[in-house]
Each structure stands twice: as C-alpha cells, then as structure tokens.
Amino acid sequence: QSPLVQSGGGLVPPGGSLRLSCIAPSLPWNYWNVAWFRQAHGKEREKINCISSADAATNYVEAVKGRFTISRDNAKSTVYLQLNSLEPEDTGVYYCAGSAWDCSSEMEYWGQGTQVTVSS
Q1: How far apart are CA 116 and CA 57, in angstroms?
Q2: CA distance linking residue 104 with residue 91, whole number of Å
Q3: What sign for the dihedral angle of Cα 60, 79, 92, 117?
Q4: Residue 104: exposed, middle, or buried by beta-carbon count in 10 A (0-12, 13-18, 19+)?
Q5: pLDDT at 83
Q6: 92 by DSSP, 3-state: which?
Q7: Closest Cα to residue 52, out of 7, 99, 9?
Q8: Those residues with Cβ within 8 angstroms of residue 77's Cβ, 6 or more apart along the chain or in another chain
Q9: What is the pLDDT of residue 16?
Q10: Residues of the chain with pLDDT under 70
Q11: pLDDT for position 47
Q12: How far apart are alpha carbons 21 and 71 in whole angstroms?
C-alpha cells in the first residue's frame, strides 16, 4: 500500500479551480521531491510538474503554464497542485508521486489518484 495520500479533485465547470493535496504521513515528506502527473482517458500518463526538496518548481507541460501551480507547505508536510482556469482537456486522473533523489529520477511512490472532471 502506498504511503502517499491524495485529496481534492472532483467536478468543476470550465474556468473553475481546484486544489489537490498530497501527504505522506510515514515519510519525511519535506525532504522528498514530489511530482504531479495526470492521465486522460485513452492517453498516456504525463508529468505535469515537480517541486524539489529545496522548493524549486519545474513545469513540464506548456499547456498548463500560468494555470497550474505546484507548491509545498512544510509546516503541514503537504504538497499542493493548484489548478486554475480549468479546461475540459484537463479532465483526467491526477497522481502525486515522490522521489527521495530528485525530480529527474524515477518516482518511488505513487498516490492513489484522484479524478478531475471539467465539464459544464
């Protein structure tokens, strides 16, 4: 069973916002590098962004630049993905994942996934 726990997600109209959260109660989460992925129906999973243990964020998807923001609150040992100006094309299952090494390494743990549906 994965040590990562996700929350957030749901149904939102186009232009709406959501915030996803990812915690790992059994890991020193503040020292881990955390990425968000998404997978649309019938498509391959894609890496959206990643935040390092040093709080440096990297975005990998041009289509979400300026709309999606990854952040972390070390006081709460929580990593967030803020989704703004959502579009129907953003619909999919969103996953958080963690690496003890860096954002370029293979992720070691994965969250259970949460559905985001953008529809009117």
Answers
A1: 22
A2: 25
A3: negative
A4: exposed
A5: 98
A6: strand
A7: 99
A8: 23, 24, 25, 29, 30
A9: 98
A10: none
A11: 98
A12: 10
